[in-house]
Every structure is written in structure tokens, then in C-alpha cells.
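Protein modeling request. Please complete all fields; requests missing the sequence field cannot be processed.
Requester role: graduate student
Desired output: 3D structure, C-alpha cell encoding
Chains: 1
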Amino acid sequence: MSPHFLVIGEALIDIVDRDGERSHHVGGSPLNVAFGLGRLGVRTVFATEFGDDADGTAIATHLASAGVAIERTDDVSRRTSTSLARIGADGSASYDFHVAWAFRTPPPVGDAQAVHVGSIGAFLAPGGPRVLELIESLPAEVLVSFDPNIRPAFVPSREETRELVERYAARATIVKLSDEDAEWLYPGRADDVAGILLGQGARLVAITRGAEGSTLYAPGATVQVPARPTRAVDTIGAGDAYMSGLLAAIAAPSGMVAALQDLSAADLAAIGRIAAESAAITVGRAGAMPPTAEELERAGRAPVGDVAPTA
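Delivered output (311 residues):
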């Protein structure tokens, strides 16, 4: 049986503006990770908030299609959160959010072997501090993964956010962030971020760089993984698909935390290739639609490129 992942964070409706034409998609970084895990066959519960409205129904239906169970953490009478994403000619996205996050009723952890948290749900008050409290209270054997996915409009000052990121990293086994997140958190010191987060206690840090690929760091190894060449339709959900692919790559029925204590360059390369494939499949089609397990398996049969150990 696959492990039980608990994902915590925001769910919303992405309103996508492409050349003046708008479409609506279910979104939110943690939701995308939960959905991606479900499509990859990982048993997943998503703790989130959305309203008892048409948008909320769309969210529930979307998650159900991937077999993801839902735990509601706030009053269903509230309005479902939204995000307006404007897609540029190069496929990049800019965002305008209308999001509320309370986390009044924390979910039961139960038999979860791993908990993932990130993005707005990790920081936005009043829910963010409650999420951090839950994460810091988890038993040591529960794997924690964290993706700050910085949205400046929803986080406190840079200094306060950096302190929060380091607190999450102190409990997390896995931290994934983009190069833009790293530069925002540590201006002029982005190259030091992996070492800082590993020093806080993380065992695996992944930094994504879009079309330039990603770099994975463990205490004894560093590996650069190229991105899969693909025609980008849009980049919505690319980082989240990388995250769900990475988590699925390390998922095992038991002993996940123990297995990440001594990662070699070969281990990092194997994990990074799966994450890169997951992201590439997602950016090659519209909307945040990560791969199924079958799609990821087929893609994995083709060469990705040379994976380069750097330390």
C-alpha cells in the first residue's frame, strides 16, 4: 500500500487571462501538489478551505477525480478564494490573488507518514501560525516537506518570512523552492540558500530554475538535473508538479525519513529526473494538469540528459 500523505494549504480558482480571453481552473499550489500525488497513485488527504458555492464544488470535483480525500479546516459558508493569472507571450504567469486562510480546525494527522505544506497556507494569518504550530508538533518519524512558493503580497516582511522559512526547514526533511524564492528570501545570497536550509535540519533541498533545470542538495552530495526540453504552453503548476513528482519518487510504504538520511549523488539524480519529467509534462499542456503514473512511466523511458554531480 502506498503511504498516506497529508497536504495542507490553500485551494482556489485560477482565472486565466490569455490574450484577453478568460478561463477558470482549479488551483492553489498545495492543491496542485495534492492533486499531482493523487494522479501518481499516492494515497492523499488534502486539508484546505473553500466555500459552499459553485467554485467550491469545482474544487471538490477536481480533487475527487484524482482520488484525493478532503478535510475542511474552516467554515464552508465563506466565499471560495480566487487568483487571476495573466499569461504572457512566453508562457510565464503573473498573479493577482483574493485569498482568505483561517485554518481554524486543524486536520487529524492519523496514520499520515508524510505531511506537505507550503505557499500562502504556510504564511497568511490567521491560519499560517496555526499551520506552523501543527508542523512543529508532529512526531519525528513523520516526513515533512515544505515549499515556500513566495507570494510577496501574502507574506510578512522579508526578515519575518525568512525566519518562518528557517523554522519550517528546521522540521522539514525536504525543502523545495525556486531560484526566485531563494533570491527574494536572501538577496544577493541565493547561492547560499541550500547550505542555510540544510544547516537548519533539512535532508534534501531542491532549487528549481525553470528551463535551466534544477539542483538537488543533500549533506554529502549535490546534483544538477537538466529540464526536459518541451514546448511550454504555460507554466502554471510547473513547480507544483515538480514537487509532487519529487515526493512520489521518495514515497515508500515505510521508513521514508530514514531513507533520506544518507542520500548519494545517484539517489539525488534518480529523484530529480522523476521530478523534472513531471514538471515537463505539465508545462506542455494548458492548466495545472500533472501527469498520471502511466504518463510519467512512459516519459521516464526516454533519456532526460546528463545529470551532473557538482560536489
